[in-house]
Structure formats: structure tokens, C-alpha cells
Input
Amino acid sequence: MILPESEERRALRAAVRTLGEKYGPDYYLGRARSGEKTTELWQAVGALGYLGVHLPVEYGGGGGGIGDLAAVCEELAVAGCPLLLTVVSPAIAGTVISRFGTDEQRQRWLPGLASGELTFAFAITEPDAGSNAHRLTTTGTRDGDQWVLSGQKTFISGVDEADAVLVVGRIRDDDTGRLKPALFVVPTDATGFSATLIETDMVAPAKQFALFFDGVRLSGDALVGSPDAGLIQLFAGLNPERIMAAAFATGTARHALNKAADYARARQVWDVPIGAHQAIAHPLAATHIDVELARLMTHRAAELYDAGDDTGAGEAANMAKYAAAEAAIAAVDHAMQTHGGNGFTTAYGLAAMLVSVRLSRTAPVSREMVLNFVAQHSLGLPRSY
Ligand SMILES: Cc1cc2nc3c(=O)[nH]c(=O)nc-3n(C[C@H](O)[C@H](O)[C@H](O)COP(=O)(O)OP(=O)(O)OC[C@H]3O[C@@H](n4cnc5c(N)ncnc54)[C@H](O)[C@@H]3O)c2cc1C
Output
């Protein structure tokens, strides 16, 4: 193992991988293709404490860090069962509520998030704002002791499986009159809330939805934590999201490389297995190096986040997500090439993976927006937009 990880983390990885392998890619892709969910796996992961491994012990968690949850996410993907909602529900909603929620909010939401009995979606993307979060228009207005939320979101994953959505909206600042970010918990059965499916060609159990908030009335405590902490909360939630997205991608990459190496050792069309041809072996070896580098950066980002360095974690998490996405896309592409015609078959599942893994270049933050961030913050170049 190249990663400098504790014995405990390694044991966690091994246990999660064993669980994931009990289900495996046939289960995962089978469910996705028949339009079914992977609920039993989610429940099993939750029941064993893996979804709450990073949450405080007093709220039913394991008391670990985001690096532990990233290991859970990664090993499930290595086993062929990448659960997109691990990136959202425990990672974003869990960490934001754990760090910034009131005591009441923590008690209400965290035990369920930790056990997997409660699932949250996360909604920031809007049709007319996209990558530009400054243009968000979903707005919460105070009405007595309630909030009234209006606006819309798009491409929100897992809403049909979620009990609530953590929504990034805006509220008016009493002092300046300006709008500032705020996070709301919106139950999916709230009056005035609706969701419509967005059809995609991705083969994955988690689906995406357009959301509409039509004057949704929420209790006063639907706003997470303090009204003044919205921006800090947002950054605190986006770092874990990027770390998890990186782990999701490197897990997928490792699954694809394992498949490719197995195939290249076994398949023989000349006198030697195809893995003996450097044209097959070298791209796989080079990609393995890129994946391990991305894993190291992900590890570092998690370490910084867990140490409370949100700024340092932000830079490392962006870089990790970028590196992991590019390595994962290359890994699946090379795995397909290794499989020849079999790379296109339903049985091998690689063509389905190609579309899914391609997502990591676009979401949760696009490759271009990461490069903008690194150009500006790491290299001190002028802001380009
Ligand atoms: C399968 C899927 C699941 C998703 N799940 C969620 C979810 O659960 N929650 C959620 O909130 N969102 C989710 N998203 C949304 C996702 O985060 C966005 O699609 C992504 O951030 C890009 O935003 P956009 O689609 O509006 O693209 P746009 O912002 O319209 O960008 C289009 C292109 O222009 C580029 N671009 C834009 N601005 C600049 C710039 N200044 N400089 C250089 N290039 C630029 C982008 O990089 C991109 O390539 C999901 C998306 C998909 C496809």
C-alpha cells in the first residue's frame, strides 16, 4: 500500500470491500438497468456504521474523519458498487449539520444520516446559474417564525430516495439588505415542493431531478445553524463533496484497472497473453501511477480537512478531484481498449462505466472551474471570469 494509512483505516477498507464484493458489479448494474435502487446495499453499509464513520460518536457516528468516509466510498466503487449518494448524504449533509447545526438539528438529523435510515440530497445547481454560484436565485423569506422558500434547482441526484434536500438558497441580510447564502433542510414531502426526472443515458441507480420550490413553508429551524454562517457552511460542505468525488473516481478507476489486468493476463490471441504486449501494459501501468497520485492528493485533502484547515483543504480537494477524474476517465478508456470488442458488451459493463466515469469531469465541479481556481489561487493569475 502506498497510502500512509493507519491499521484501522486499512481494516475499514478491507471490511467495506468485502461487503461491496458480496453485491458486486452484476448486482449494481443489474439494478441500474432495471430502474431499481440499491437500497439493501445502502442499508447494509449504514447498519454496519460505515455511513456515519466520520460523524461524532454522541450522534451515532464512528468519530472518525472525512478520510474514513472517503475510504468507504472508494472501496465500494472498487467492488463495482459506486454509491453516488455517499458523496451527498453523509458527506455534505452530515458534515454541514455536524459542524454548523444547532444541537437540536444535530440530534434530529445526524443519527439517521449515520445509520443510513435518513437520506439527504444536496441542491446547489440552478438552471440559470450553473457553475456560477453567485447567480443563485432560490430565496428564503422570513414570515413570522417560518421561512418561505421559492426557486428551482436542476440535476439534483437521488431526490426520489431522499427524505430531505439540503438546499443552498439565499436570504436577505438584515444589516446590508443584500442577499447572502443560507442552507435549508427541505423535507421531500413538503407542500409546494416538487421534482421531475431528468432523463440521462447514465447507467446508475441514482437519478437526477429538476426541483421546484413554490412558496415552500418551512419551520424556523429549517435554516441550518446561524443565518450569518451560510458561506462558511457552503465551503465546509463543498470540500468533503470534492474529496468524496475524488474517492468515487479513484475507486471506479481501480475497479476498471483490476478488470483490465485480469483480462490482459487471461486473453491470448498470439503466443502470449495480450498483457505481455507493451501497447496494452503501458497505458494500464501509467494510469495506475496517475490513480495512485490522485489517491495521495485525496488523502492529503482529507487530512487537511480533518485538521480544520478549510482553505488548505479547498486547494487540495480541488486538485484531488481534478486528478482523480482525469485518471479515472483514462482508466476506464484503457480498460475498454484492453477488452477489444468485449469492452462494448453489456456483460463486461465497461461501456456503461465510460459514461458514468465521464461525470467526474463535469460534477460536482467542472474541470474548467477547478483550473480557474488553481490558476487564480495557487498560481496568483488574474481571475478569468
Ligand atoms: C449526473 C449528474 C449529477 C449531478 N448531481 C448534482 C447534485 O446532486 N446536486 C447539485 O447541486 N448538482 C448536481 N449536478 C450538477 C453539476 O454539478 C453541474 O452540472 C456542474 O457543476 C456544471 O454546471 P452546469 O451543468 O450548469 O454547466 P455550466 O455552468 O453551464 O458550464 C458548461 C460548461 O462551461 C464551462 N464553464 C462555465 N463557466 C466557465 C468559466 N468561467 N471558465 C471556464 N469554463 C467555464 C464549464 O466548465 C462547462 O464545461 C449533477 C450533474 C450531473 C450531470
Q: What stands out?
A: Residues 52 and 309 are 21 Å apart (CA to CA). The longest helix spans residues 230-266.
